[in-house]
Every structure is written in structure tokens, then in C-alpha cells.
Specification:
This protein is mainly α. It has one domain (3-159). The protein is built from 7 helices and no strands. It has helices at residues 3-21, 24-35, 41-72, 78-90, 92-98, 108-115, 120-188. It is flat.
Length: 189
């Protein structure tokens, strides 16, 4: 199992889907992979940007058509949702660009924006600007951080097989232990 080969073969695809769903972790790791020469820095930025755009656009349209229904389910967070709506009306440019940088609003933010009835063409323009900034910042952080992380990754890669076998043995021992406990419990009943 060669991790470098897996990253160079499936790295862009994993990065794309990771950026659709979550983003920061995958984008940072993409930057580290670019630092290591496994992926190309420019392509990592482009793929992260496209994944971020697609993910937030899908959530925006989900919010546009089903946002009120979805947001009503967050009964405890209605105050924060109302506050976000006020911010969208007051400062749509800052909110749409900044939502991908706001912890806790990464997923629900575009849904709130869609439910706010912000015009789709305005959202798309601001979403692209935000995605470009976001991808450049996080990929660059990963790239620079790769200087610190790279030695650890090389050590991990050397010991990955040993770690895999230790984890597998621990899981098997744990599974056998549970099996014996359940078997003993059945016999006692």
C-alpha cells in the first residue's frame, strides 16, 4: 500500500468531493500534497475552488426551494438564523464571501442565503469570489504547513504497514473479547 501513489492517482478526485462536503481539511491536505510534489499546486487550487463552488451552489438552491422548511427544524437556533438574515440584507457581499470562513455556518450558511431570496446571479458571483479566496488561502496554508508536516508524513508512510497491522490486531482482540462476553452472558441467562 503506497500512500504517495494513492494520493497522486486519486488526490484530485478526493479533494473535489471533500471540498463539496466539508472543505478545509481536504484543502489543507491538498496543499500539503502539493508541497510534497504529489499534486500540482495550481490544480489543487482550481479543484478546491470548483468543489467549493459546486457544494455551496447546491446548498444555496436547496435553501432557495426548501430553506424555510429546513430552517424551521432548527428551533434552538432561530435567533442566530434571524441574525444571519439581517447580516445578509445589510452586507450581502461580506456575508456570502465570508460564510465559507465562518465556523459553524459552512454548511447551513448557503442554505440561509438561499432562503433569504438573494438573487442567484449575485450569489454566484460572490460565491466564485469567496471560493477563489478560500481555495488560495487554505491551499497555501497547507503548502506552507507542508514544510512542518512533511517529515511526520514520511515517518508515518514508513511505519504505515506496521501501524495497520497493530490496529487490525487490536480490533480483532477487541472483537473476540466482545464475542466472549456476549457468549458468556447468553450462557448465564
Amino acid at each position: 500500500m503506497d500512500v504517495n501513489h494513492l494520493i497522486s492517482q486519486y488526490g484530485y478526485l478526493a479533494l473535489f468531493f471533500g471540498c463539496i462536503a466539508e472543505g478545509e481539511t481536504f484543502t489543507l491536505l491538498g496543499g500539503v500534497a502539493a508541497h510534497e510534489g504529489l499534486l500540482h499546486y495550481g490544480w489543487v487550487v482550481v479543484v478546491a475552488m470548483l468543489g467549493g463552488i459546486l457544494g455551496d451552489t447546491a446548498l444555496f438552491f436547496l435553501g432557495r426551494y426548501y430553506g424555510d422548511t429546513i430552517l424551521k427544524r432548527f428551533k434552538k437556533h432561530q435567533t442566530q438564523i434571524a441574525k444571519a438574515n439581517r447580516l445578509i440584507r445589510k452586507r450581502p457581499v461580506l456575508f456570502v464571501i465570508g460564510v465559507r470562513f465562518m465556523y459553524g455556518l459552512r454548511i447551513v450558511g448557503p442554505i440561509i442565503i438561499g432562503a433569504s431570496r438573494l438573487k442567484p446571479h449575485k450569489f454566484m458571483l460572490l460565491n466564485v469570489i469567496g471560493a477563489v479566496l478560500w481555495a488560495l488561502i487554505f491551499v497555501s496554508l497547507g503548502y506552507v504547513g507542508g514544510q512542518v508536516i512533511a517529515p511526520w508524513l514520511h515517518a508515518l508512510d514508513r511505519h504505515l504497514k506496521q501501524i495497520f497491522w497493530v490496529v487490525l490486531i487490536l480490533v480483532l482482540v477487541w472483537g473476540v473479547r466482545i464475542w466472549f462476553k456476549r457468549r458468556s452472558a447468553r450462557e448465564n441467562d
